[in-house]
């Protein structure tokens, strides 16, 4: 499917669903999870944790509270045990499961960060390739507007280049 790239704070995006770069415990700490937790201005962390733990690559859905979305899809690309590092397989599976869950929920629009990077330790450029390829290969039932987002300018430039090369 076609998708676009964006730069900015995922918590400031407007979409039917926003994807959280989660760990298997679904505990919302820093990075994307922290931004969404702060923006939600509600018990999103407690609701997320009550749906976990999930398997590596698994997803859970919560209300988006004060975020400009209906749902937050928590996609577990990193384990919250062992070395805490994401893998190629976990990034692909978490991305694929987030897309499928968004379709199951009837979402038209979705914003996805580059899962598995940052605290999960996976190289950003390679992670961007995996996320973008998985979205490209997805056959949506309801999704029409999928945006992959990067916060920092340098990461956005990398993401833009990766997406253009697909």
TrEMBL record:
Entry's Pfam families?
Answer: Macro
Query: What is the recorded name of this protein?
Result: Macro domain-containing protein
Macro domain: from which residue to which, for each copy?
Answer: 1-166
The organism sits in which domain of life?
A: Archaea
Question: Which PROSITE patterns does this one have?
Answer: MACRO
